[in-house]
Structures are given as structure tokens and as C-alpha cells.
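Researcher: Please translate sequence to C-alpha cells.
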Amino acid sequence: MKVYLDDERTTPQGWVRTYWPDEVIALLETGEVQELSLDHDLGDDERGTGYDVVLWIEEAVMTRGFKPPKIMVHSANSSARIKMQAGIDAIERFANN
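Model: Translation complete:
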């Protein structure tokens, strides 16, 4: 499955729409997510951001051997995009070793 985390944009055809990090994490835990596209700003930082998903994946990969899906960032927040991409790069380095 392909999972799209966003609060405003139109969901691409063939993707499962999620609005909050906990929804994405629940789908990731099924082991069925093959691709993931993340926005950062979701309208309520207390409920989480796309970066929270990156942090969850990073911890799961390093502590439980979780196999990450292909992860992309579609956020317009340039500083958050850089931070999220750095986390994704770390996930990929660790998962490929």
C-alpha cells in the first residue's frame, strides 16, 4: 500500500490518505506499506507532524529491525523538509547495512 500523509493537498490516485502520524504508524505496523509520502505541517503540532513519523521509523529500524518503506517528503516547509530528509537518509543508511 502507498500512504499519503497530508492535511490539505489532494490525495494522489492509488494512495491511502492519512491526516495524523498515529494513523500512519498504525498502517506501518501492519507491514503492508511500500511507499510513504509525508507532509510536515498538519494543522495541529500537538497531534504531531510528518517528522514524528520519520522519528518513529528511525527508532523502529534501529531497535526492532523494522524494514522501512520507500519514504518521500512533499512538504512545502523548507527547513522541515531538510530535517525530515536527514532522518530519512539516516534510516536508509542504517537499513542498508
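Researcher: Any highlights?
Model: Residues 71 and 89 are 10 Å apart (CA to CA).
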